[in-house]
Automatic annotation (TrEMBL):
Keywords: Amino-acid biosynthesis, Aromatic amino acid biosynthesis, Lyase, Pyridoxal phosphate, Tryptophan biosynthesis. Belongs to the TrpB family. Its cofactor is pyridoxal 5'-phosphate. The keyword Lyase applies. Pathway: Amino-acid biosynthesis; L-tryptophan biosynthesis; L-tryptophan from chorismate: step 5/5. The gene is trpB. It comes from Marispirochaeta aestuarii. Residues 52-375 form the Tryptophan synthase beta chain-like PALP domain. The modification N6-(pyridoxal phosphate)lysine is found at K86. Its EC number is 4.2.1.20. This is Tryptophan synthase beta chain. GO terms for cellular component: cytoplasm.
């Protein structure tokens, strides 16, 4: 294996013989177009016209006043088209796939946001699109399945294993092995075999570049950037321009689920944490048992419910440049409520984990310090989960009435 794509002890490219050709072809294409000015101009044009970039940086003045500590700012990435940061990477990879002459795109999705982003970009750029999704995720993120199909994608239910993201990845890898001549596999997080972690970081770093500019325009005294960490794409993109310097602090927030002590969580860097392993083409930290088998995970947010973490984050966490914290399901829901009540914005449950950490940390800091939290997505997609948890019996009665109405119409 080449040393490219190694982050300290992590990363690399561990793929079956059959996939060597497409990953090498992808690496060559990515390296070839990375600094090309026409490619960048095309990315910027779609980013501006289709995604709606730049996304705003909003001062959460009411909530900050309420807390009485540091000023909380929100990078409003959820205002990007299709509702989350996933669209930045989907656009970058699809433009690359077009230059590689591919006509078909496949993807995996957990929360559905990556699937929706990919399906939208495929509709816009004219690709045939197939999305693999675990049947558990299909149930909890049903609205996103509807949008993907409306954009013309075929959503393939995956009923193996835990029926969540990692199982969808396995199915997508199988498809790619059989069809790579005309098909690009558009991975949705900063993980997988090299060049994926580097490529996803590159296309997501638009978030960090904009943030750096917005910080300096307002002359903010930023103590920390805070982002939730599933596989790690929104966090590494947000942190990218700051990694080489020693400040501000960079904080990744994992899902503590029902509590770190319960075992029902997805925390690979906090608590007892993950173990080294090589899974799905890369070396990193994974939640596994003593025999190296992947453990099932739990989070109220489908997008954080993944047993592995991107290799660069694992490395930077071990090296101390990125700090890790965790928030429980309950803390995430409380953060959704706080930002909705005081700021009129509805965080995705994933981003709400970062929001919860921002609220905790703000109380410990003086008023002249700023914290920037990445709202990686907005909460529309979580309506059925958030309302189920927060609105109580009236929501369940509403659903039952709707279902009765549907049945009556048949
Ligand atoms: C809104 C949102 N935030 C965060 C994530 C977590 O992914 P990542 O860590 O790659 O940003 C997801 C994944 O689906 C998501 O939908």
């Amino acid at each position: 294996m080449s040393t490219k794509g190694l982050y300290g002890n992590f990363g690399g490219r561990y793929v079956a013989e059959i996939l060597r050709k497409p990953v090498l072809e992808l690496e060559e294409a990515f390296e070839g177009w990375k600094d090309d000015s026409d490619f960048k101009a095309e990315f910027d044009r779609y980013a501006n016209e289709f995604i709606g970039r730049p996304t705003p940086l909003m001062y959460a003045d009411n909530l900050s006043r309420q807390i009485g500590g540091a000023q909380i700012y929100v990078k409003m990435e959820g205002l990007a088209h299709t509702g989350a940061h996933k669209i930045n990477n989907a656009l970058g990879q699809a433009l690359l796939a077009r230059r590689m002459g591919k006509t078909r795109i496949i993807a995996e999705t957990g929360a559905g946001q990556h699937g929706v982003a990919t399906a939208a970009v495929c509709a816009k750029l004219g690709f045939d699109c197939t999305v693999y999704m675990g049947t558990v995720d299909i149930r909890r993120q049903r609205p996103n399945v509807f949008w993907m199909e409306l954009f013309g994608a075929r959503v393939v239910p995956v009923a193996s294993g835990a029926r969540t993201l990692k199982d969808a990845v396995n199915e997508a890898l199988r498809d790619w092995s059989a069809n790579f001549t005309d098909t690009h596999y558009l991975i949705g997080s900063a993980l997988g075999p090299h060049p994926y972690p580097a490529m996803v970081k590159e296309y997501q770093s638009v978030i960090g570049r904009e943030t750096a500019l917005q910080m300096s325009e307002r002359d903010l005294n930023v103590e920390a950037l805070i982002a939730c960490v599933g596989g790690g794409s929104n966090s590494i993109g947000f942190f990218a321009p700051f990694i080489e310097s020693s400040e501000p602090r960079l904080i990744g927030v994992e899902a503590a689920g029902l509590g770190l002590e319960t075992g029902a969580h997805a925390a690979r860097m906090t608590g007892s944490g993950g173990r080294e392993g090589i899974i799905q083409g890369y070396k990193s930290l994974f939640l596994t048992d003593n025999n190296g088998q992947v453990l099932s995970t739990h989070s109220i947010s489908a997008g954080l419910d993944y047993p592995g973490i991107g290799p660069e984050l694992a490395h930077l966490g071990k090296a101390g440049r990125i700090e890790f914290a965790s928030a429980t399901d309950t803390e995430a829901l409380e953060a959704v409520k706080a930002f909705a009540r005081y700021e009129g914005v509805i965080f995705a449950l994933e981003s709400a984990h970062a929001g919860a950490e921002a609220i905790k940390l703000a109380t410990k800091l003086p008023k002249d310090k700023a914290l920037i939290v990445n709202m990686s997505g907005r909460g529309d997609k979580d309506l059925f989960i958030s309302a189920g948890a927060l609105a109580g019996p009236s929501w369940k009665e509403f659903l039952a009435r709707e279902a009765e109405g549907e049945a009556g119409d048949e």
